[in-house]
Design brief:
Length: 134
């Protein structure tokens, strides 16, 4: 039996999968750096990659009496990372945050904040507090 040579379409698929695996690992590393940032400020991590039907929240953090919902964006530069946060995504995160708060004793009355955490290729972290909470 001869060895089967992958078609051009299969090669493209393999490359796409490899890019996805790399992006996932890069995103996970960025989320870890951001979690360390919050821990260093005395915050507690309540959840990582919390999922609901409305969407996923990268990090849920307790900062004093406030619950902070953090969207982590990783790109080559901090400016490029900031550009990657779209309005539709912010809306999904807000809906997911409400679903998260339904589980808490204070429910929708929970004090909350929405931060954007930007990470560049050098691992620098910049947190924009209340980035899209209004």
């Amino acid at each position: 039996m001869g060895r089967r040579v992958p078609s051009a379409g299969q090669g493209t698929r393999v490359a796409r999968i490899a890019r996805g695996v790399s992006a996932h690992a890069s995103g996970a590393a960025a989320e870890e750096r951001v979690a360390d940032h919050y821990l260093g400020r005395g915050c507690a991590i309540l959840a990582r990659r919390w999922r609901s039907p409305a969407g996923e929240i990268d990090l849920v953090v307790a900062d004093g009496d406030e619950v902070v919902f953090v969207e982590v964006k990783k790109s080559a530069t901090l400016a490029q990372a900031a550009e990657r946060l779209a309005r539709a995504q912010m809306d999904r995160i807000c809906m997911a945050a409400l679903a998260y708060c339904e589980r808490l004793p204070t429910g929708s009355l929970t004090a909350m904040r929405f931060d954007a955490a930007l990470v560049d290729d050098e691992g620098r972290v910049e947190v924009i507090p209340n980035a899209f909470g209004g």
